Amino acid sequence: MPAAPLEVTKLSAGYGPTRVIEDISFSVPAGERLAVLGRNGMGKTSLFATIAGQTRRYGGEIRLGGQDIAAQPSATRALSGLGYVPQTRDVFPSLTVEENLFVGLKSRPKSAIEEAYTMFPRLKERRSNLGSQLSGGEQQMLSTARTILGQPSVLLLDEPLEGLAPVICEELMAAFSLLAQSGETTILLVEQRIQSALEFADWVMIMERGRIAWTGTPQALSADQETVDRLLGVGGLH
Ligand SMILES: Nc1ncnc2c1ncn2[C@@H]1O[C@H](COP(=O)(O)OP(=O)(O)OP(=O)(O)O)[C@@H](O)[C@H]1O
What is the pTM (predicted TM-score) of this model? Predict the structure, then answer.
C-alpha cells in the first residue's frame, strides 16, 4: 500500500464517561511525518488509541486515504492500512521473534520477514529467542517491525524511544527515517525526546488537556522559546 493522507475532523473521545480528546482536527499529507508533543497526561496516547479504535469515540471523523474509518473496529482499521505501535510494545512473550514477525505478515509470503531483518539485523540474531527474553530496545524493534511488515499506509508510533539507551534510540530513529524516506508510509510520532522528534518531523503538533495548543514546523518551534516553556516545560528542547 502506498502512503495515504490522514485527516482527523472534530474528534472527541475518552474512557467511559471521561472525555480526554476534545474536538481535535488536523491532517497529515501522504508520506509526511508529524510529531505529536505535549507534557504528561495531555492526551497524546489517547489520540493515537482513538485513531486506532481503542477508546470510546464520542464524535468526529478519521479519514485514511479519504475513507472514513472511525466506525470500523480496530482490526478492520489495520486492514484498511493503519499501523499502530503502542507504548506498551505488544510483543507476544511466549512466541519466538520469528513467530512474532509471522503474525505481522497478514497474507504476505513468509519470505517477506527478511525485510524486518534488513531493517533490524539484531532481530535476525535473536530470531529463535522468545519475546519474553528480549531487552526493551529489542522488544521495541520487534513490535515496530511486526507492524511495518503489514505495509501500513499510515503508521502511529507512541513513544518508541521510552526507556531506551541512546545507541538504541539512534538505531530506531535511523530505521524510522529510512522508512519515511521510502515514501510508503505517513508517520505520526509521539515522543518525549523532543530533539529527536524535531529532527525527524516535517510538522509538529502540541497537545494540552486533550486539545491542540500549537501547530507548526520544527524550525518555528525551535525559534519560539516561549511556546516551548509554556507547553513543554522549561528545558523542553534539551
Ligand atoms: N484507560 C484510561 N482510563 C481512564 N482515563 C485514562 C485512561 N488512560 C488515560 N487516561 C487519562 O486520559 C488523560 C490523557 O492521558 P494520555 O495517556 O492520553 O496522555 P499522554 O499525553 O499520552 O501522557 P504520557 O506522556 O504520560 O503518556 C489523562 O488524564 C489520563 O489520566
Answer: 0.94
Distance 120 CA to ligand 1 centre (A): 30
| Three cell numbers written together for 197 | 522528534
CA–CA separation, 72 and 78 (whole Å): 10
Q: Say how many C-beta atoms besides its own lie within 10 A of residue 37's C-beta.
A: 25
Q: What's the CA gap between 137 and 144, in Å, rounded?
A: 11
Between the CA of residue 153 and those of 32, 178, 221, what are the distances in Å? 11, 15, 27
The C-alpha cell at 112 is 517477506
The set of residues, in sequence order, having a beta carbon less than 8 Å from that of 54 and lying 6+ positions away, is: 74
Q: So what's the ipTM on this one?
A: 0.94
- Which atom of ligand 1 lies at the shortest distance from residue 190's CA? 22
Domains delineated in the chain: 6-232 (3.40.50.300)
CA distances (Å), origin 55, targets 140, 164, 216: 23, 27, 27
**Angle between helix 97-104 and 136-149 (nearest 10):** 30
Distance in Å, CA 40 to ligand 1 centroid: 8
Give per-residue pLDDT as tens, 88-118: 888 999 999 999 999 999 889 999 999 999 9
First to last CA, the chain: 37
For ligand 1, whether the C-beta of 37 sits within 6 Å is no
* Residue owning the nearest CA to atom 26 of ligand 1: 40
